[in-house]
Amino acid sequence: MSAVNDDVNENQRRAIGIALAGLDEVLCAIEAWADGREARGVLYTETNDLPNSQREALRKRVGEARRLLVEARDRLGLKPTEVRASGDVWSRCCAIRDTLSELDAKHMKGYGGLPTELARYMNGLASRLVDAIDRLAEGAGSHP
User: Fold this and answer.
1) CA–CA separation, 27 vs 62, rounded Å?
2) pLDDT in tens, 73-131
3) What range defines the domain where residue 71 resides?
4) Residue 144 is assigned to a structural domain of this protein
């Protein structure tokens, strides 16, 4: 295989790298399912219904896709994207914050009027959830 590294400008390399790092992130998630991942939360539960034969097939296909990523990395001179826990926690908290703030009565009216007691409860709940997510983001340390 010939090197194509010199034919790629930095903007192209960055765009290609972002797309391929995104693919590798998806491969990591698929690999976690193949390895038996089952997260358990209060309102979020994962059920890993993959039989062993399907898990093995997924691992094999992840490996095939990763070989393509290794080839692209080497030929294009791509650098790995590093995701740090602190930045990921902070980003996830920021991403869900607006959704939580919109659980208040004013925003929920769009789905139909709320009885007074429910409106009061939702306002308090939204406020407490936003505070909780803000504390989680703070706990992650400085943002990226």
Assistant:
1) 6
2) 999 999 999 999 999 999 999 999 999 999 999 999 999 999 999 999 999 999 999 99
3) 5-76
4) no
17 & 70 share domain: yes
Cα separation, 15 vs 13, whole angstroms: 6
The answer as to whether 128 is a domain residue is yes
What is the rounded distance in angstroms from the CA atom of residue 28 to the CA atom of residue 46?
Answer: 16
Q: Which residue has the tokens 């034919």?
A: 7
The total of other beta-carbon atoms located within 10 Å of residue 59's CB is 14
Produce one character per residue of 73-102: b if its CB has 16 or more CB atoms within 10 Å, e if not: beebebeeeeeeeeeebbeebeeebeebee
Q: If you search the block for the tokens 């399907």, which residue do you land on?
A: 54
